[in-house]
Task: structure prediction
Amino acid sequence: VRILLGLDYELFFGRNTGTPERCLLAPTEALLDMGRSSSLRVCLFVDVGYLVALRRHATAFPALDRTFSVIAAQLRKAVSLGHDVQLHVHPHWEDSRFDGERWVIDTCRYRLQDFNDSDTHTIVREYKAVLAEICDRDIYAFRAGGWCLQPFPQIKNALKANSVWLDSTVVPGGHNPDPHHGFDFRGAPSAEQWRFDDDPLAPDADGYFLEVPITPVVTGPSLYWKMAMSRVGTGSATFDRFGDGDPIEHTQSYYLTRLLSTTVGPASVDGAKASYLPRRCRELRGTSGLFNVMGHPKSLTAFSLAKLRELTTYEDTEWITFRDFSDYAPSAGRT
Ligand SMILES: [Zn+2]
Result:
């Protein structure tokens, strides 16, 4: 099995964003520590909009400049230890501001598709450039914030113009009917990667983009009951997450669906979801199959770390990053 672990490196976007210390720095440091004594490799999908916002407000609030520097140092350290850093886009940072104490988050324009064509180009260009400058390396892989990859034609040209050619957003079979930030990945191929052009769900051998989908996991209602219970405080410290902010509220139907029925979600290391990882990984053992796992530093728990540690003890696994896909670059000898 080849294991690809891609974590969205971001704060919370609810009323309280939480602190960079607990949402980003501490959990990521724990991962880097684990990587020193094991084969674990991680790709940080960095929410660069936050870094751009830190810079934008740094003149008025010098403390934000220090935050930027500490985060940049951690990203450089991750790269120097053999981990990967790629682009995650949450464009609502363009509309959010710092009031001197906290971030006032405005998610009216939550998706890149909510911005006009010119702004979309500017955002992708700036975010990629800031990350490339921090890490001193080319950035070419992308994960859409909130899985909002569709409609793809609205963001395609901005990604292509900036040579962002690898996407890892699709969760085959996943579906969220939310009218503002929904997605529909039902009908995606079950392959472990494919090229596409206009539609991430429609393979096109000559397409510019490469999709490396997140491995889907079918979960029953019991997982969500477990998560709901651990949230009301019956759990032990094992299920306390690193992050200290509030998530965006989902609609009630989102929770009801998950508490009552079987759903398809991404293989994830977040909190109790990590309980599925060893079984799903074992299903792929003995094959060269790709196990593409996602998650968030802010949502990691001691339980998550224990499950990751368990995966590193499997003998027939290889931890890879998106760097290992560089041969698939559209310019690399393709006709
Ligand atoms: Zn995100």
